[in-house]
Amino acid sequence: MNIADGFLDIFIWFVQILTSKLPTSISFFTIETYQNLLAGIKTFLLAIVNSVAWFLPMSLILTLFKVMIFSYLSLFGFKIVKFALNLLRGAGA
Amino acid sequence: MLPKKLKKIFLILGTLFLAFFLFSYAFPVFALSIPFSDNFENYEIGQLHNQYNWTETYPDRFRVKQFESKEVECSTAPALNCEAKKKGEQIESGSWQLEFYLPPLSSGGYFQVYYIDDSNFGWIGWRVQDFGRDDYYVSCQRGCSGIYFEGKINTGWNTFLIVWDKTIKKWFFKLNDESSPTFDLDETFPYISGLKIEAFDLNWRFDNISSGKITGIGGLPFVFPDEPATDTISLVDFASTTFSGTLKIPDIYDEGYCYELNAVLSPPPTWLWEKQPSIQTIPIWQGELEANEEDAYSTTTEITLDYPLLKVDYKIFCHNTTTEQIETFFQDVNSWVESTTTIPSPPLAPYITELPTTTPYLISCDEYTGLDWLVCKIHELLVGAFIPSAQKITNLKQKVDEIGSKFPSNYINTTNNFIYDVYNGLSETQPNLVITAPFSNATSSVDFSLLTLNLGGSLNISLQQLIRGFFTILALFGFGFWLLEFLGSIL
């Protein structure tokens, strides 16, 4: 008996159930509607951003945004771990 | 310490950045976890060859790789994006004559051309402010050194000349039309291009553009569409479909035999066809073939489809007598099959990639004796128990792929593509300031590239460099302040 195959069977069974239950699209907000909406938003956003990209270092700004976001998330993750550890050792939150 | 107001500003900015992250990163990260990797580097029981999926994390990046489309027929209703794609080899430059048929429009419109290279999907198109005038806007970004067109934009057929001086890998042509046009691509043309055409009016509707075509000049890629069609296209009947061809096992596969050949029929992707039926597998040959043996097959079967196109992959099952494993190999034929009842044979015999001579982590215990042999056997038992079979991996991949086309994965993928498009759509186009004098046709313009600042008689800095340098320093300063504040909040 291949144990890995057994685990995969269970997972595949779970995925099968999930696939059969999940709809392809939401009736009141279809995927096509969503795609068309995003296409409009995309063009609108690009028009705005590109209009200022000539004199603003957009790539640098986006990179700095990434660094900041990553920092905030790292800090957030660290605090969660710290919180969990405190709970585990009975020191309270 | 920083003043309280500054702290508040940083707090607001931080919140905004976090929101931005959740929107632009959390979704893609989740979506990224869905597609199954084809990289079986550490799993060498079998290799799957060119097994592409309809749904990828970045369809805009990869979708062209998946298809070699000869013909695409649009759905009847409602209107969907109608796309035709073709893959080929790269060329360095070329020119295209672009022709569009525009029905009478009451308002202006919008028109885009995309190029595609290996990694980027960027916008290099032009914007048409008003179809009724010669007013247009051309931009070029991300390394394209030249794109031009000539001609007026009017109702009826319009002709433009695009001179392309960019290494382009692929091209595809995209238009939408409720009247269901048919686009014929020249399948024999070996080159590539990277062209995407989207046309829609200012209300972001796709139904005002009737049809379009790209005509090659001097042996370059070309597309011949029909005249704007008005007839609806009925679904294709695949009843009594014949699969025929010859199956040949390469001599590289000398460790076993092959016993079954299946045709795997994939439906069009959701962005092309509104329904998303499941993948069908049809057995078309059974027997036993070893290396260098071949056998002709011809199987006629009835296929029930509710979509007009399908993609055929061939999947062969073989048995490796050395490892006692069942191995599956895919051959991606990469072709659409349309209104025909004869499925074309694979262009080549099913291609089997070179198999590894040994199964990873499994070693032969014959050379050991005594306790070493016992330990080796235990090792073999454990490894054998914990390495899944290729069949299961394939099965898992298929099931996981199916989830990709379901809610919410397809919505997440769409969001992910949107973010990717926005990020890669950034351009640094020079602003074009044109002032029209009142009560006359005279215009004045400012060319920003000519505005330079001379420092010390030897150093010339353009206006753009000057302004960008200023904002760069400003951004770095702001980031420095934020960094201090952030570090202060930690320590």
Topology summary:
The complex is a heterodimer of chains A (93) and B (491).
Chain A: H1 3-21, H2 31-53, H3 58-88
Chain B: H1 4-32, H2 59-66, E1 71-73, E2 81-91, E3 94-102, E4 109-116, E5 121-123, E6 126-128, E7 136-138, E8 156-164, E9 168-176, E10 182-185, E11 196-201, E12 211-216, E13 223-225, E14 241-248, E15 256-266, E16 280-289, E17 294-301, E18 310-320, E19 325-337, E20 342-343, H3 370-386, H4 390-404, H5 409-424, E21 433-436, E22 443-446, E23 452-455, E24 459-462, H6 463-490
Parallel strand pairs in B: 14-20
Antiparallel strand pairs in B: 1-10, 2-9, 3-8, 3-12, 4-5, 4-11, 6-7, 10-13, 14-17, 15-16, 15-18, 18-19, 21-22, 23-24
Helix pairs in contact in B: 1-5
Account of the 3D structure:
The complex is a heterodimer of chains A (93) and B (491). In chain A, 78% of the residues lie in helices and 0% in strands. The longest helix of chain A has 31 residues, at 58-88. With 93 residues, chain A is mainly alpha-helical. By secondary structure, chain B is α+β, with helices and mostly antiparallel strands. In chain B, 23% of the residues lie in helices and 32% in strands. Chain B contains six helices and 24 strands. Chain B has helices at residues 4-32, 59-66, 370-386, 390-404, 409-424, 463-490; strands spanning 71-73, 81-91, 94-102, 109-116, 121-123, 126-128, 136-138, 156-164, 168-176, 182-185, 196-201, 211-216, 223-225, 241-248, 256-266, 280-289, 294-301, 310-320, 325-337, 342-343, 433-436, 443-446, 452-455, 459-462. In chain B, the strands form nine sheets. Chain B has a four-stranded antiparallel beta sheet with strand order 16-15-18-19, covered by helices on one side. In chain B, strands 1-10-13 form a three-stranded antiparallel beta sheet, with no helix packed on it. In chain B, strand 23 (452-455) and strand 24 form a beta hairpin. In chain B, helix 1 crosses helix 5. The longest helix of chain B is centred in the first third of the chain and has 29 residues, at 4-32. Chain B starts with a helix and ends with a helix. Mean pLDDT of chain B is 53; it is low at 20-157, 159-237, 269-275, 332-342 and 344-360. Chains A and B meet through helix 1, helix 2 and helix 3 of A and helix 1, helix 3, helix 4, helix 5 and helix 6 of B.
